[in-house]
Structure formats: C-alpha cells, structure tokens
Amino acid sequence: MDYEEKGLKTNPVTEAFTELAPSYKSTMDQELYQFWGIHYMEFVEKMVTMTAIKPGEKVLDIATGTAVIPLKLKSVMGTQDPIVGLDITPAMLAEGRKDIAKCGRGSAINLVCASAMCMPFVDRSFQVVICGLGTHHMDVPQMLSEAKRILVDSGRLAICDVCATPFWRSPIGRITLWLLLRMYGIANSAARSKAEIEAFKNVRTAREWSEILKDFGFRKIEMDVVNPRFPWFPGGMTLTAEVSA
Ligand SMILES: C[S@@+](CC[C@H](N)C(=O)[O-])C[C@H]1O[C@@H](n2cnc3c(N)ncnc32)[C@H](O)[C@@H]1O
Questions:
Q1: Does ligand 1 have an atom closer than 6 angstroms to the CB of 240?
Q2: Among residues 117, 68, 130, which one has the least CA distance to residue 93?
Q3: pLDDT, tens digit, for every residue of 61-110?
Q4: Predicted TM-score of the model (pTM)
Q5: From CA 139, how far away is CA 203, in angstroms rounded?
Q6: Neighbour-count burial of 125, counting CB atoms closer than 10 A to its CB (0-12 exposed, 13-18 middle, 19+ buried)
Q7: Is there an atom of ligand 1 within 6 Å of 113 CB?
Q8: 77 lines ligand 1 (CB under 6 A)
C-alpha cells in the first residue's frame, strides 16, 4: 500500500507541489532560466546524459515529480526496461501519469507514491538511482542511507540540485534569503515559500556534498557546479557517484 492509498498526511512540501503541479514545467523553466540561464528541458537532458544508463539497468528516479526525467530517459534509451519513479506528492504523479499515457509508455514507467526517506523497495534492487531538484526537500543523510541500501554494489547515484554559495553561508545572506522568500510567499505562493524556507537546512555546498557522500561510502565522485546569476540565487550542482562494493 502506498501513500496515495493510505491517505497522505500533508506537509509544506506536498502542499507546495500540489499547488504547483498543473504549472510545474513552465514554472521550472522560468526559475531555472532566471537562476542559471538554462531552460528546464536542457536541465533534464543534462541529467539524462550524465546518468549514462546502459541497456538492462534497473533505474529509480526519486522525487520524480511529473515524470519528466523517466519520460526523457525512455525516449533516449529506446529499451523496454522499466523505470520506476517515486514521489511524495500525489498531484505531481497524477500530472506525470497523464503525460505517460499521452506518450503510450504506460507499461514502461511505474510511478510509486512514497517518501524517499523510507522507500518501499528491497535491498540492492536498482543499478541506478537518480534525483533531480529534489534533495533540498529531504533529510539528505536519510535519503543517502536509503539510496545506498537499494543500490547494488557499484550501483550509481546521479543528483542534480541547487547548492549553497558563500553568500548563503553569511549571516547577511541568510537574512536576505529569508526576506526574499517571505516576499515571494506574499506575492506568489505561501505554501511554496514555506517549503523553500524549510529546505534551507538541507542545501549543501558542493564540498559538503562531496564529504557526506564519502562518509556514506560512495566513491568515484564527480561534480560540476553552475554559478548563479546573482549571489542570492542558489547555485546548481550535478554529481555522480558509485556505491563501494
Ligand atoms: C522540484 S520537484 C522535482 C521534480 C523532478 N525530479 C524534476 O526534475 O522535474 C521536487 C519534487 O520532490 C518531491 N519530494 C520532496 N520531498 C520528497 C520526499 N521526501 N520523497 C519523495 N519525493 C519528495 C516533491 O513532491 C516534488 O515533486
């Protein structure tokens, strides 16, 4: 039984993404262009390229949202191997299911409503775990512990998300960010503002990511950082790592 069947408890994240779901892709396109000067689909293509899936690999996309990453993966992989997408917000998955149906890929992408903090999969069941723009909403150590548990030995992790900049670490930076997000909440969405303020504590610098991955026994860590357009915007980070055998 998953979250949808049990009746999901709402929290700031599910509230924010339930509200955002119908306009998710256009909002992301606008925000990513504003932050990093790239369009949302360019971001998705980058994720797919860096993940370098091989035929036969079992892939899990956590925080899959509207399933844009699994759909893109399917279109480039051209294989029948199923992909699993997991997300905590039923409304995001509902949008994803509509797009999957339109593409006729119903049997190839399985969507599961659950938390990445406690994934309903047996140990060592995936070769690849991906997460795009989701880790800042999660307790990262708990997510990494779960990712490590469900990955096979030498399985790969690919993450793309926002990262903290030096400005974010300064007291003045923290106050500025809090004020900007409160203003965003007043002008746009209170739920989104609350979810992003709660996410502050999870946003790490690239160096902090490298350290925590090593602590969890990941190796072959490769990272790429995109500088934000303004100091108060989040930086962007892509990383790949492998579970130690
Ligand atoms: C910004 S969206 C990213 C969606 C998609 N990965 C993409 O790149 O477009 C963040 C997603 O993370 C999901 N999320 C947040 N916390 C989660 C958790 N603990 N477990 C699973 N999904 C979570 C939200 O519901 C939302 O759909």
A1: no
A2: 68
A3: 999 999 999 999 998 877 678 899 999 999 999 999 999 999 876 568 99
A4: 0.93
A5: 10
A6: middle
A7: no
A8: no
